[in-house]
Amino acid sequence: MKRLLGLCVLLALAALLAWGGGSLHASGIAPEGGHPTRVPVPAVPPAGFRLPTPQPGGGMGLADRLGPPPLSDPPTQIELGHWHYNFSCMVCHGDRGQGLTAEWRTVLDPADRNCWQARCHGPSHPPYGFEIPKTAPMIMGSGALSGYRTAADLFEYLRAKMPWPYPGLFDDTVYWELTAYLADANQVDLGGEKLGPERAQRIFLVPELVQTYQGDIRGERLAAGAVMGLLLLAAALRSLVLRG
Fold this sequence. Notes:
Layout lengths: L1 H22 L39 H4 L10 H12 L1 H4 L8 H6 L43 H11 L10 H14 L27 H31 L1
Helix pairs in contact: 1-8, 3-7, 6-7
C-alpha cells in the first residue's frame, strides 16, 4: 500500500511539472542576443526628426514595393499597422519583413545603400544622428516570431526597443497596430477582432502553439483537472494507509 501511495504521489508531481513546464514553453521576450547592442541615443528626438523612410519614384525604383499600402475606409487595425510598418520599419526590416538584406538595399536610392558611411549612420555620424546596426533580423516568415510566446510579449518588446534610434517613440495605439500587422503577416489568426491588452496574452505566436484562445483555455483546464484528480487520489490513499 505504501509503495502504491508513493507511486501516486510521484505521478501527481510529474503531471504537475509537465503541465507547468508546457504552459511556459517558449515564453518570454526574444533574447537580446538576437539584436546588436543598441547605441545610446538622446531620450527625446531632436526638433524636426523624421525616421528614414523610403519613398517611391526617383532613384528608388520598384515603386510598387515602396509605395504606401492601401487603406480601407475606415482602415482596420492591421492596415494601420501595415502603414506604420512601411513608413517607420521597412527601411531596416525590408518590404517583406526579410531583414536588411543585400537584395533589399539594391531597391533603395544609391546614396542610401550604404548607411554606415562617414557622416551618415556609422560610428562617425553627426551629433543629431544615430548609429544603426549592419544587420536587421527577418520578422516575417517561418520561425520569425519564435522568440515571443504571445502577442503581448511582442507588443512589450516593440514598445521597449523599437524604433531602433528612439525606443518608445510611438503611443500604445501604434504599437498595438504594429503588433497586429506583424502577427497577421506571420499567419497568426487574430479572430477578426481588434488586438489589445485584454486579448494579447491569449494570442499565441509560436507555431506549435498557434490556436484559438478558447482551445488553449480548454486544454489548460483539462490539465489542471487531471493534476487535481491525481492529488486527490494520493490524498485518499494516504488517508487509508494512516487509518490502517
